[in-house]
Write a structure and sequence with these properties.
Low-confidence stretches: none
Shape: elongated
Strand content: 25-35%
Number of strands: 11
Radius of gyration: 39 Å
Order of helices and strands: HHEEHEEEEHEEHEEEHH
């Protein structure tokens, strides 16, 4: 509503209406520091924060962000990287139309410097020394450690990702002597391809080290299980062995044989019954 009101007000720089509206734009920049500038434009003029004198010479109707939004109203569009006139740095612009019902009043645009976007994305910890990249549908690097802002559609990995029919997955590629694995995900709504690039040799080395750890853990578990089973089997077999020897003595007429075992398991019950049997035999004799 504020944009709609400003579109009908005095939009000359430093006018009362301009100061009120520009304060809101400044609040946006303060809330979203990754944005380098924000502006409202129609066919007549552009109001931008922070202001720069060259804005008077900008014809918004010739800019990709304006044309994209006007051709597809109500949808957010992101441009390919370009050199921003106010900062001289590589920039991408997100834009959307401002509408009053079905009437298009103008376009709101937000600039994000590629350096800021690269810093923000690179801060994400991928693990295993993965490198994050973002490529648009034309093969232009939006986020890339070395080729940000450049068209790299001729690189093997980029060609395979752009031609991939699946929305997400992974591909193998080679850059010079380096074999790479690229995990990617397509975002058709904005025409971006987000990916993580890994060195295949390094991943294989990590896999081998993990394999060694798993092997050692498996061996340790087997040894522990063997020791535990040995203890359990010994506790079971030893009383049976003793019981067998005592039964041999009873068979030879020795009715003084008794087994001293007080466990409450089946072996203990067997020993108890054996002692009782010997006592009954003694009484009978």
């Amino acid at each position: 509503d504020d944009v709609k009101a400003f579109a009908m007000a005095d939009r000359s720089y430093n006018s009362a209406d301009d100061k009120v509206y520009r304060k809101q734009l400044a609040n946006f920049i303060a809330s979203y520091p990754d944005a380098s500038s924000i502006y409202f434009a129609d066919a007549t003029a552009v109001t931008i924060e922070p202001h720069f004198d060259g804005v008077k010479e900008i014809d918004a109707t010739t800019r990709a962000w304006y044309i994209n939004s006007m051709n597809n109203p109500g949808t957010v569009h992101w441009t390919s990287p370009y050199i921003d006139q106010s900062t001289g740095n590589s920039t991408i612009t997100g834009s959307i139309t401002v509408q009053d019902g079905n009437q298009i009043i103008g376009v709101i645009g937000v600039d994000i410097l590629l350096d800021s976007l690269t810093t923000m994305v690179s801060a994400i910890e991928l693990g295993y020394d993965g490198t994050p990249v973002i490529i648009d549908s034309e093969g232009v690097a939006i986020v890339h450690p070395t080729y940000a802002g450049e068209n790299i559609s001729d690189q093997d990995a980029v060609v395979k990702v752009l031609q991939a029919e699946k929305q997400s997955g992974f591909i193998q590629s080679s850059t010079g002597q380096v074999e790479q694995i690229v995990v990617y995900n397509k975002i058709p709504e904005i025409g971006w391809n987000i990916g993580a690039v890994y060195n295949e040799q390094q991943l294989n080395e990590i896999a081998k080290s993990i394999e060694k750890v798993i092997f050692l853990i498996t061996v340790a578990i087997i040894v522990i299980m063997f020791v535990v089973l040995l203890i359990v089997i010994t506790r079971i077999v030893r009383p049976l062995e003793t019981l067998g020897k005592l039964m041999g003595r009873v068979a030879n007429g020795d009715l003084t044989a008794k087994i001293d075992l007080h466990s409450k398991d089946e072996i203990g019950q067997l020993a108890k019954n054996f002692n009782r049997m010997v006592d009954e035999m003694k009484d009978i004799v």
